[in-house]
Amino acid sequence: MRHLLSTEDLTRDDALRVLDTAEYMATVADRSVKKLPTLRGRTVVNLFFEDSTRTRTSFEVAAKRLSADVINFSARGSSVSKGESLKDTAQTLEAMGADAVVCRHPASGAPYRLARWVRGSVLNAGDGTHEHPTQALLDAFTIRRRLGRLEGLSVTIVGDLLHSRVARSNMWLLSTLGARVTLVAPPTLVPVGVEQWPAEVSYDLDAVLPKSDVVMMLRVQRERMTAAFFPTEREYTRRYGLDADRLAAMPPSALVMHPGPMVRGMEIASDVADSTRSTVVEQVANGVSVRMAVLYLLLGGTREVT
Asked: pTM of the predicted model, to two decimals?
């Protein structure tokens, strides 16, 4: 594996190798010195054309815990905002000797183009409405740690499927790992061609909840809403929001997940987000372990336990 561009490309063995390596990386966080020398001398560039403090910081912490040098390259205020093309930026990164480029871009497919132009590894940190593979890997890692398995679980993904790269990445990865995925959304927020995806589709959240081992709520992406996809926010919350009553309808061991940032009171109630069934805080912590694992595997780190 040279790049991580999509979870659709991952085999079951690839995915399990990342999750198993992340288990080892998680032990580093428990040490007094949270650092491994495995990527000393390597350079990781965070190339973000969209704002995302949490993902960028998570990759930065992961790289630094592996002793890599990190360059944060924000498109805002750089030569990119003055009209420099993605290819010109790629040539600049090549000149810097980047071993890995973590790329977030508003255009679907941008990391694929970047991967053709740089010699280093490219990690997709979110491209348009296409994919966000490390988010899906950290979600799968969190589920496996909490419930002990992924095979045979029923995972329900609820909300703005049309614009969600998190939903796409999770759907491909979780189905590869043996989970049954159900997608729930208003008809206006279900993508064209969804019948070809390895998932069931439902428009009735209440019918699906009692059979769900995991319920993953998605943020309603107001910034991508260019049309009236539902009548009002209150109507959306009434039909598709996760509140205490709906939580009570779920099996006692079922988990509540959210990739963040959350719109509290819209897709998820505050008391649900803060409940013991919620994994939101764990997902952030697990993101560092998973991103350490991905960098380690892509850059050929040698496992040195210190």
From this structure: 0.93
